[in-house]
Design a protein that fits this description.
Blueprint (H helix, E strand, L loop, with lengths): L10 H4 L5 H14 L6 E5 L5 H8 L3 E6 L2 H14 L4 E4 L11 E6 L10 H14 E12 L1 H8 L3 E5 L3 E10 L4 E11 L5 E11 L3 H11 L2 E7 L12 E7 L7
Parallel strand pairs: 1-2, 1-4, 2-3, 4-5
Antiparallel strand pairs: 5-11, 6-7, 7-8, 8-9, 10-11
């Protein structure tokens, strides 16, 4: 699992079309349905902390975990500006540790697709179950196999801004259901000088049935799934799926 490095500095610039406010509202409504309207919530794969800040503004005591030091540095700059009491931890979600349990865990923006081995994703679920309060709620999203195969696979996406640009080349491997994407970044330094940076990342597409099976093996209880940002069940053409699961007793080795 690769961490964002150079891309972290321009991540928010290129993600300025993401309706984070709407995402936060959607998550808040889902949490409220399971009686989570306050208390400690873990944002697993929090990135630059945009959503973490929005959830903190809604009254949750937020913890953010991410694998990228560069992304967390930006998140902490936002925390300094907002003055909100958010705890950020530089940890790998495959082996994260908390000081105690939390009321809910959220993980969105396809963070879990970076886990490309089923055994490792099962371990993430097991850790979430371990750190949730009894019957605590886990809400997460994932990109589907359909999205990588039919939408992103073997596509090139490019975007240019005033002081930075990127080329995003996708390569989808059907047998492994893994999407490789190569990010070529061009960042302005001084005058008209641009420096090129290249990062390669991998994401695995998952089917809902696989997610259900891994949740069950981890000791969690699958509750429901939605086509992202709706209350409709997923379809064969769903690109992003939201899953709600609950703590169901702690696993003992």
């Amino acid at each position: 699992m690769e961490a964002y490095t150079s891309f972290a500095s321009v991540y928010d610039t290129f993600m300025d079309n993401i309706p984070y406010e709407e995402w936060a509202e959607y998550l808040s409504r889902l949490l409220a349905e399971y009686e989570v309207t306050d208390g400690i919530v873990l944002d697993l794969g929090c990135g630059t902390g945009t959503l973490t800040e929005l959830m903190a503004a809604r009254g949750f005591d937020m913890i953010g975990v991410d694998y990228s030091e560069e992304m967390l540095e930006i998140a902490m700059e936002k925390r300094a500006e907002s003055g909100r009491d958010i705890l950020y931890l530089l940890q790998d979600m495959r082996e994260f540790e908390l000081y105690g349990t939390v009321r809910a865990v959220i993980s969105i923006c396809d963070s879990l697709n970076y886990i490309t081995e089923e055994a490792e994703l099962e371990e993430v679920f097991r850790l979430v179950n371990n750190y949730l309060d009894p019957e605590g709620v886990f809400i997460f999203d994932f990109n589907t196999v359909y999205k990588y195969r039919e939408i992103l696979g073997d596509q090139t996406i490019a975007e240019s801004r005033e002081d930075c640009s990127f080329i995003w080349d996708n390569y989808y491997y059907e047998e492994e259901q893994i999407n490789e994407y190569e990010l070529s970044l061009f960042l302005q330094e001084e005058g008209n000088l641009y420096r090129k940076y290249v990062e390669t990342h991998y994401q695995k597409g998952y089917e809902l049935e696989t997610i259900k099976r891994l949740l069950e093996k981890s000791g969690m209880k699958f509750v429901t799934a939605y086509d992202a940002f709706t209350r409709n069940p997923p379809t064969k053409e769903s690109e992003r799926v939201y899953v709600i699961a609950r703590e169901s007793g702690k696993c003992r080795e």
